[in-house]
Amino acid sequence: MPIEISNSIICRILPQQVPQLWECIKFACVQADEVNKEDMPFYFNELLQALLNEKAQCFIRLAEDRTLLALMITRIVLDRITDKKHLSLQCLYSFKTVKDEVWERDWKFLLDFVKKEGCSYISYNSRHNKLWELGEMVGFYEKHRTYEIRVEGL
Fold first, then answer.
1. Residue 3's pLDDT band (boundaries 50, 70, 90)?
2. In this structure, are residues 91 and 71 in contact, taking their beta carbons and an 8 Å threshold?
3. Which of 16, 47, 58, 61 gives the lowest tally of CB atoms within 10 Å of its CB?
């Protein structure tokens, strides 16, 4: 059953705050990005460097009592073909199920951030139905599908 979060707050984590939240960040990324165990050292080393150097951004949603409710990792990327900036959602994870209205409020926060940064669009990849639904709810559309096959053992 979704809970209503009326007085939650969204915060951008500063690079010096990343170590305090590092275990939560790793947990959320493993859950949302489905990182293979053998890829985790490289994945997390690169992510930690990107967060500490502000090449990636971490946003969190906190409850009134400062309980961590959701976490999002983004990256501002320069499109090599169009030379336009866009925001890539790398990780979006909620520790609690919330009503769609909360996600809509989060979306408005993210949209303000993207406009301030001069991005032309927002993109994300996901294989989770709920994330597809959330994206469609705020206006995303499917641009393409990615297929993959692992060649080890073939």
1. very low
2. yes
3. 16
**Backbone angles phi and psi of 83, in degrees to 5:** 60, 30
Domain ranges of the chain: 9-137
pLDDT exceeds 60 at position 1: no
Q: What is the 3-state secondary structure (H, E, C) of 125-144?
A: CCCCHHHHHHHHHCCCCCCC
CA 21, CA 84: separation in Å to the nearest integer?
A: 31
How do residues 130-152 score in pLDDT, each as one tens digit? 776 777 777 766 777 677 777 87
Cβ-based neighbours of 73, under 8 Å, separated by 6 or more: 25, 28, 29, 47, 51, 56, 57, 58, 89, 90, 91, 92
pTM above the 0.85 mark?
Answer: no
Question: Which residue, 82, 81, 92, is CA-closest to 57?
Answer: 92
Most confident of 43-57, 79-93, 99-113: 43-57
Class of domain 9-137: alpha beta
Contact 4, 98 (CB under 8 A): yes
